[in-house]
Amino acid sequence: MAKGRKIYEGKAKILYEGPEPGTLIQYFKDDATAFNNEKRAVLDGKGVLNNRISEFVMTQLNSIGLPTHFLKRLNMREQLIKEVEIIPLEVICRNVAAGSISKRLGLEEGAPLPRSIIEFCYKKDELGDPLVSEEHITAFNWASNQEIDDIIAMTLRVNDFLTGLFAAVGIKLVDFKVEYGRLYEGEMVRTVLADEISPDSCRLWDMSTGEKLDKDRFRRDLGGVTEAYSEVARRLGIIKEDKGGAEILSFGGE
Ligand code: TMP
Ligand code: ASP
């Protein structure tokens, strides 16, 4: 499929104009960054794995009636998506204390939270994506009250669905980050899930060993990053048993 003009390049993905108006092509790079770009690496095959894992998750969410921007995977590194106007919020949902909430509130990593907690960060690299409240979001018009309500309801639904999906393959969903967009359909505007859901944007711990199967392997220099992502893909049945990551790298053409 012919790619159009590059319209945006982020840290891990590139967006191109799609084949039809209202569509874009989302390209997954192998680049990894953390701590607001201070730490960088190229991890061979990461983009291929995230493309497949995100396709798998978004397809399932679409099928339970949760609207997403995802249309279809095109090849190893690209997927066709609906063009949306990204709401400038990183929406984090946490089930277990880890990462920044552990630091901020002095909670031991691994401690279960009293209930699932949703946090909002303002998407602004120059500021390091600061934590904000609903007051900031509505006062500065980043999203309306209705959009915030929709985002909270959808994020809790994503959390319930993903918690079950991962639990079924022995993985604990500790936390994750999602983004939403405005989909303009004639006179209508709908809030839909956008961006990606992958081990780059989730904390995933093996339920029996506690082993980290996500981007914390990169952030914390634990090694075996793409091996861990492959393990997630293998358990979800996206790549075949016992062939490891090698199989996915030769899958799907392009
Ligand atoms: P945090 O504990 O560092 O705030 O991260 C919470 C979750 O959000 C974790 O699963 C990683 C994910 N996340 C991103 O995907 N992108 C980001 O820029 C940040 C800060 C977190
Ligand atoms: N700091 C974020 C993380 O650790 C992402 C980034 O800045 O690229 O995931």
So, CATH architecture of one domain?
Answer: 2-Layer Sandwich
Number of helices: 7
The overall average pLDDT, rounded, is 95
Query: How helical, in percent, are the residues?
Result: 25-40%
DSSP E strands, number? 14
Sheet having the most strands: 7 strands, antiparallel
SSE pattern, N- to C-terminal: EEEEEHEEEEHEEHHEEEHHH
What's the alpha carbon Rg, rounded to whole Å?
18 Å
- Per CATH, the class of one domain reads Alpha Beta
Name the bound molecules. Answer: thymidine-5'-phosphate, aspartic acid
Tell me the name of the CATH homologous superfamily of one domain: ATP-grasp fold, B domain
**Measured distance between first and last alpha carbons:** 10 Å
Q: Decide which structural class fits the backbone.
A: alpha+beta
Low-confidence stretches: none
Strand content: 25-35%
Enter the CATH topology name of one domain. D-amino Acid Aminotransferase, Chain A, domain 1
Shape: globular
Question: What's the gist of this structure?
Answer:
This protein is of the alpha+beta class and 254 residues long. Helix content is 30%, strand content 32%.
How would you characterize this protein structure?
The protein is of the alpha+beta class. The chain has a domain at 85-206: ATP-grasp fold, B domain (D-amino Acid Aminotransferase, Chain A, domain 1), CATH 3.30.470. The chain is built from 7 helices and 14 strands. Strand 6 and strand 7 (78-82) form a beta hairpin. Helix 1 runs parallel beside helix 6. The longest helix has 23 residues, at 145-167. The chain starts with 5 loop residues before the first strand and ends in a 5-residue tail after the last helix. The relative contact order is 0.16. The mean pLDDT is 95. Thymidine-5'-phosphate binds at residues 90, 92, 98-101, 129, 175-177, 201-203.
